[in-house]
Amino acid sequence: MRSVLLRFQEALRERGWDGAVIASPESLSSTNLRYLSGFTGSSAYLVVSTENAWLLTDSRYLQQASVEAGDCEVLEQGVHVAASIARICREHGIFTLGWEDDKVPVRLFKEWLDTIPVVWRPLDHLIEELRLIKTSEEIDAIRRAAQIAGAALMEVLGNLVGRREIDVALDLEVAMRRLGAESLAFPTIVASGERGALPHAHPTDRVIRSGELATIDYGAQVEGYKSDETVTVATGPIPADLRRVWMVVKQAQTQAIATIRPGMSSRDVDEAARNVIRRAGYGDAFGHGTGHGVGLDIHEAPFASPNSSYERPLEAGMTITVEPGVYLAKIGGVRLEDTFVVTPTGFERLTIVRKSLSFLIRRTVVRRNFCAAICRGIRGQHYPNDVAAGSGCAGTATTHQLVD
Ligand code: ZN
Ligand code: ZN
């Protein structure tokens, strides 16, 4: 049986409950149902007792469910799902039933109250608590998603200037799919120039120019598990004040990463980043939390936030992003984000792209200097400054070298 389902049943036993019901109809898609059962379809109900599990779904998914949810007895849900759940409870001596009090709509719960004669107990995020600590299979999936996403980003980073944000997003998304992502982790964010001040900007038809910042927040999904990473790169030499902002955010991220280990709290991670940004005078320009867990959902516990109600100790097996940002209205913004898994001794970084401001500048110079023919191809001329700098771009196809 799936180890996570066994852990859930053990938790039910500890509470002295007979079972729980997890509802994930079309209108209420729940990753908790997938987590416990393995079923990936869009509509199902899961009834778990301390010994068994039943997955109720409609005729579209019966075959799929019997393959994916191998630990569950798969049943057709019938016209009246609540009556089917009531029958399972009656036949298997389930008198106390947990329910997801933060998810089930009032209307559905009223129907259950009328139809299923049990004592109801709120699950109070019990499944989310189990999901906090990832299994090695879960971490493998997130790691693969992050590697695919990073490799895809490398393909598009060299080709930003003169292109629309939406085209860059599309290229990145296609590359992620081509490299093995089953889907995107979330809608890609590409925000260039002054639009970088919008933390969750949707890509637009704005053309990315040389000499500005571009923020790309993106992720891939593998086996339901998501990756999350943000880069902010300069598309050419940028003004000193923007460069300073980038350096402050980089420093904030570095300080926050250094706090990740068991025993520290999620709030310590936030504080480390926030202190750097505050000291640099940008405290008001960093409005969101520093990080969050990643798994089947893109945002899940633990949360690295200044809000103490989210505070919890870090434990090995938790994932957490570190994503400080500074957003200056009408000017631009910077966010740098990596995803980590907490290990017994510290952390492992799952995202693979090095956070470098000048990544793109270097790439451009490299290409520009690659040979005379390419110089002509890109800009129609050679670069005397490069020759002066000793880069070897002397206007022939044979004399070239990397400057970096
Ligand atoms: Zn992100
Ligand atoms: Zn994030």
* Structural domains: how many: 3
Report the sheet-strand fraction: 15-25%
Report, as a whole number of angstroms, the end-to-end distance: 54 Å
- Tell me what the CATH architecture of the largest domain is: Alpha-Beta Complex
The residue fraction in helices comes out at: 25-40%
* Strand order across the largest sheet: 4-3-2-1-5-6
Give me the CATH superfamily of the largest domain.
Creatinase/methionine aminopeptidase superfamily
Using only CA atoms, what is the Rg? 25 Å
Q: Based on helices, strands and strand pairing, what is the structural class? A: alpha+beta
How would you state the average pLDDT, rounded? 90
- Ligand identities: zinc ion
The number of distinct β-strands equals 19
Instruction: Please tell me what the overall shape is.
Output: elongated
Name the descriptors.
alpha+beta; Creatine Amidinohydrolase, Chain A, domain 1; Creatine Amidinohydrolase; 6-stranded mixed sheet; 13 helices; 19 strands; 20% strand; disordered C terminus; binds zinc ion
What does this structure look like?
The chain has 404 residues and is an alpha+beta fold. It folds into 3 domains: 3-132, Creatinase/prolidase N-terminal domain (Creatine Amidinohydrolase, Chain A, domain 1), CATH 3.40.350.10; 136-359, Creatinase/methionine aminopeptidase superfamily (Creatine Amidinohydrolase, Alpha-Beta Complex); 369-404, no CATH class. It is 36% helix and 20% strand. The strands form 6 sheets. The protein has a 6-stranded mixed beta sheet, with helices on both faces. Strands 7-10-11 form a 3-stranded antiparallel beta sheet. A hairpin with a 3-residue loop joins β2 (44-49) and β3. α9 runs antiparallel to α10. The longest helix has 22 residues, at 136-157. The protein starts with a helix and ends in a 16-residue tail after the last helix. Mean pLDDT is 90; it is low at 360-404. One zinc ion (ZN) binds next to loops.
